[in-house]
């Protein structure tokens, strides 16, 4: 899920300038008169909210560690988060650390944003997160990757995981300007408008016409003569938009997420004819759905609709892009999708959320799903109260926690019963969850 945020001059009043969505959590970047403020809400059990604990938040809360740190871009993986600071030339990561997806050099879970020493001093131009891997492009056009690599999604020519950022040497000589990640694949575009894909290719999501995994970047077919300006990924599908605003999709299509009016997988990029008359300006891919905003700011949706994440008012799949009528008449300038929820911001600063909300990821304060966009006043210009975002934020001292310290050892069989028919209590030496820790099975 890929949305670049740019902090302009300090605004007269706070407004959201960047969005990111994970599997069940959300991030927003506020530009304020005093500087940047990162907000997070939703599921937090892996530390992905950055508040120093494993609790969920049903309303946005400031990540105090990043307050006024010059953050200008946010991204979410499934259960982790990253933020780039242009002024500090630093990339921060936090959340679930398995497979090295945080790039900190180990597999520890991180509950407070931690800087990545390997990228210190580099300005991040674009960053993207998959389920368990991360890809970074610097302002000089260099490409780095880290995390899980079982399908070659790091582009390093192997299937070996890596715990810290490594250069993707196969694209040396190319200037990478945009990156995007699916669950186990990656896509990038260059300053010449070329598109490369790598990683898991079973559904054609790499875009080279084949279904094999690719361990190094492979040029997408079907885009000859097209100069691509944007790329994005869903879980197992890929998206590109050219300079003229034409949208192309490829990969997995069981839910109609490619927008071609059918459920047929595509192995090379194919133009979305239903949006031929629209000049697409923004695109984002969810787990099984796709959103696009055209040059007029109208939002179009396709794909899985079970939780209302398409925003069209029903819970049915959408195989041909439909306009999100609840946003008609407004000009959307920021658009983001998570696994099962979606977010948008208009040119007037109004903030909307829709879809799955079981962990509070919509930011409404409750857990009710919505199949149409609902305005979140706390994040809309004119109603933003900065003090409300910081008054409950209480960072703790723990930054990284090893998985063995967080999770209980789950026995293979039920515990024995005592003679009275009750369950024996664990001894002091037994491995049991501590507060704010959970089991993983």
From TrEMBL:
Q: Which domain of life is it from?
A: Eukaryota
Q: Which N-terminal stretch is annotated as signal sequence?
A: none
Domain called RCC1-like: residue spans: 10-286
| Protein keywords | Receptor, Repeat
> In residue terms, where are the RCC repeats?
36-87, 89-140, 141-192, 193-244, 245-296, 297-348, 349-414
Q: Which InterPro entries match?
A: RCC1-like_dom (IPR058923), RCC1/BLIP-II (IPR009091), Reg_chr_condens (IPR000408), Ub_ligase/GEF_domain (IPR051210)
Q: Name one Pfam family in it.
A: WD40_RLD
Q: Where is this region: Disordered?
A: 407-441
The protein's name = Ultraviolet-B receptor UVR8
Q: Organism, per UniProt?
A: Micractinium conductrix
